[in-house]
Write a structure and sequence with these properties.
Elements: E1 17-22, H1 25-33, E2 42-45, E3 53-56, H2 58-61, H3 71-77, E4 82-84, H4 88-103, E5 109-113, E6 116-120, H5 125-128, H6 131-146, E7 150-155, H7 158-168, E8 173-175, H8 181-185, H9 198-206, H10 212-216, H11 220-238, E9 255-265, H12 268-288, E10 292-302, E11 315-326, H13 329-343, E12 349-360, H14 374-393
Parallel strand pairs: 2-4, 7-8
Antiparallel strand pairs: 1-6, 1-7, 2-3, 5-6, 9-12, 10-11, 10-12
Helix pairs in contact: 4-6, 12-13
């Protein structure tokens, strides 16, 4: 095996992948709908002292402002920054319109978030034309229908298409043909590869690899000796050997919800009330997708920083298996409360989250010979009634007395399965 061939399976030689990524999605919507914001630095996200930027207009990005940046830092860099809390209902509505356009070109659409997706164009040339023509038509249709810009990358594998769309921003299109992959990838920094974050980048640099080409040309034996099996795997990506397919119907593995408090919270009852709200929201999403969960997970981020950076706060996670898989918020909340009491946070908490895993369809597990208990049947009817009210009037129309409305440090671009309009009230339409 030569140094130029890290081995592993080769991608499908006929595959064509398009990656579409909306430009500054939240901020662009606000600028479209509010003319007074156009050509001004705009940020959308949490505005508290612990708020985080979810999206920044390109005018704001000239000051170095980007998503996931703390709000106080964004304001420091741009005192004239216009900060907006955002409207998740509006953004989710626009996302649905955009994804409907995507699916007009191929049914194989893998949504990564509200504002980006992979489209598999393999085998569509005779019907739709050359991939680059498809990309231009898609961009024009999105702009005509929504007034928003989308950047497009086209390549023979997902990773190349994703990198191409990043480099095409803002409002551009870049196609990388199969024979151009190595020339395209080689000069890029290793941080462009999937799975290579700051820590991995330092690890690769210490081993003498700073560009993608350095990795692609490395001898597998040397990689394995210095970096183990991970080094060989990342070298395959460096050579363009990304065999992952576009997955339009990926099954959910976990559901979760979390929030960061404006100030650290040490009061157990307030933490429990917030956990209950998260549990109810997760349960509603489970019911909407027709799923039940067997394991409840509690996440706590403590308030005392022990290292620099966003990961510098200690993180505690605890989980508990349920006696029976459930989609009942009361059951999930009770388990979260037990986990909270057992964790006994040693100090005030910065963030709390509740999640579930080990998902299944009702009835897939062991059958109950005696059927549901009367109390469980009553709660099931109550939950269905609450779901109907939430769908008609919004998720905050009816809440339990011991719930606490959580504060968001930022709006999420993530597509949450089972949730049509996160953090939204009733649709005015």
């Amino acid at each position: 095996m030569s140094g130029s061939d890290p081995g592993g399976p080769a991608p499908d030689p006929e595959r064509v992948v398009l990656h579409a990524d909306m430009d500054a999605f939240y901020a662009s919507i606000e600028q479209r709908d509010r003319p007074e914001l156009r050509r001004k630095p705009v940020a959308v996200g949490g505005s508290s002292s612990r708020g985080v930027v979810s999206a920044a207009s390109y005018e704001a990005r000239r000051f170095g402002i980007h998503s996931a940046m703390p709000s106080f830092e964004a304001r420091r860099r741009c005192p004239d920054l216009i900060f907006l809390r955002g409207d998740m209902r509006k953004y989710a509505r626009e996302s649905k319109r955009i994804f409907a356009i995507f699916r007009g070109y191929t049914p194989s659409v893998e949504g990564l978030s509200l504002d980006e997706a992979f489209l598999d164009l393999t085998g569509t040339r005779r019907l739709l034309g050359a991939p680059v023509e498809v990309g231009h038509r898609l961009r024009a249709e999105v702009r005509e229908e929504t007034g928003l810009a989308v950047s497009v990358g086209i390549g023979p594998v997902k990773m190349v298409a994703k990198i191409a769309s990043d480099l095409a921003k803002p409002d551009g299109l870049l196609e990388v043909r199969r024979e151009e992959v190595r020339a395209f990838l080689d000069p890029l920094p290793v941080s462009r590869l999937w799975g290579v974050g700051p820590v991995a980048q330092r690890r690769l640099a210490s081993a003498g690899f700073t560009t993608v080409g350095d990795l692609a040309r490395a001898e597998p034996g040397a990689l394995r000796a210095s970096l183990g099996a991970w080094g060989v795997e990342v070298a395959r990506l460096a050579a363009g050997r990304d065999v992952r397919e576009v997955e339009p119907y990926r099954a959910a593995v976990t559901y979760s919800e979390e929030n960061t408090f404006a100030e650290d919270v040490g009061d157990l009852e307030k933490l429990a009330a917030t956990a209950r709200t998260h549990a109810e929201n997760v349960a509603r999403r489970l019911r909407r997708d027709g799923l039940v969960a067997r394991t409840v997970v509690l996440k706590l981020k403590l308030g005392t920083r022990v290292a620099p950076g966003p990961r510098g706060y200690p993180l505690l996670t605890r989980q508990q298996a349920l006696a029976e898989a459930s989609d009942d918020g009361a059951v999930l909340a009770a388990a979260a409360r037990q986990l909270l009491e057992r964790a006994g946070p040693p100090e005030p908490v910065r963030l709390i989250g509740v999640g579930v895993s080990h998902l299944s369809r009702p009835g897939e597990g062991q059958l109950d010979l005696f059927g549901p208990a009367p109390e469980a049947a009553l709660r099931s009817r109550l939950n269905r009634a609450l779901d109907s009210l939430a769908e008609r009037f919004g998720p905050r129309a009816v809440v339990r007395a011991d719930e606490s409305r959580p504060e968001r440090a930022a709006l999420s671009l993530q597509i949450k399965r089972g949730e049509d309009d996160p953090e939204a009230g009733p649709d005015p339409d």
